[in-house]
Amino acid sequence: MTPPSHDRPIETPEQAGQYLETLINHEQRRDLSTARMDLGPIRALLERLGEPQAGLSILHVAGSKGKGSTCLFAEAALGALGKRAGVFTSPHLHRWTERFRVASEEVDGRVLAQAVDDLRPHVDWLRENDPDRTPTFFDATTAAALLIFARAGLDHVVLEVGLGGRLDSTNAVEPRVCAITTIELEHTDKLGDTIAKIAWEKAGIIKRAVPCFVGRLVPDAEAVIRDEARKVGAPLHALGKDFEPIAGDALAVLGRHQQDNAALALACVEALEGFDSVEARQKALSGICAAVLPGRIEVLDDAPRTIVDAAHTQASARELAAVLAAQPGAQRRLLLSVSEGKDLGSIFDALLPGFDEVYVTRAEPYRSVETEALAALVREHRPETVVVAIDDPGLAAREALAASKANDLLVAAGSVYLAAVAREHWSAPSGTPATSTKP
Fold this sequence. Notes:
Blueprint: H1 13-20, H2 40-48, E1 58-62, H3 67-80, E2 85-88, E3 100-102, E4 105-106, H4 109-129, H5 137-151, E5 156-160, E6 177-180, H6 188-191, H7 195-202, E7 212-214, H8 219-232, E8 236-238, H9 256-273, H10 278-289, E9 298-302, E10 305-308, H11 314-324, E11 332-336, H12 344-351, E12 357-360, H13 371-381, E13 386-389, H14 393-402, E14 409-413, H15 416-426
Parallel strand pairs: 1-5, 1-6, 2-5, 6-7, 7-8, 10-14, 11-12, 11-14, 12-13
Antiparallel strand pairs: 2-3, 3-4, 9-10
């Protein structure tokens, strides 16, 4: 199809971001109470773009938590095998280009700009001529990723589901392998108010005869996933039954949950590649064991011991608390911001007992709980904890760091937005991305 022309091409990632932000963006707009869950717009856009996803060898990853880590572990394994992989994850920590990775590197901004420039006229055409199929922000970013990957000469592509699975934009593809990491109550306004309903939405990525690998699931979720796999004739392989967690002491990252994610990634890569020797499997495993995962129980420094994590659910807060229990710290200080709609009580129950002082802030103006409201809830939940409320997240991060001595523990948790702020203010002055290290 021939799209209409535009006078000014998109030439930079900043311009690409500005254009994408003109589309409905449920990541940023908390006041939009419901997302339009519909594959029609992304399918219409991909059709107009010439079906860039056709012919790609795709690993499709869904789950409540751990799906981003699993994607990056899979990338590391494929890279260790000498394979070129494209990876699409969301959201980003600092830059738009972080969402799009090619051959283990963040994509060049000009490449992203070109992809968005190419899809813009088609998005605009649909907006003007077929309003019911107007692509959203996530439709467009997914399409941009698939355009980039189709042009990059890749061996495999790893796609992270944005929300749910069945009607997520990424589900317009036909994968070679599927994975579902974990399932817990999340986005109940969009996915359902029970584990079984949420599991059914995530099971929507399962395709006929496509092998599906699943992580540690509660019984209600596993029953739904197994039933859906049986209905479509998809081979199902479960952690703890068909493959085992990776030994924690082998990994460069912290947390028992990462042992599960690493094992899931290794199993998926084996399904993609078909390891032909013990040596091949060991190469893939070595890549996984060396992988660094920004913003995921990431140790930035040792004096003070400084850790950043994007934990924002009950399960992830518990995993973080389990890791922190073994961390040194004369005084233990938490920098906290949480998005609206989260189960604050369960997050507080997991995290607050481990800290002497909590710095409360608002990391994202649309989605985060207001600072004073969050501070009041923290004080109510745990009166013995010292609470410092600072509305500006950058200032809160700097003040928390300034208050911490060399033998203290300082942790940021509660949201991806806060993880990004903390990394910016607690990392090395050069701005070089920090790396995860063990104690």
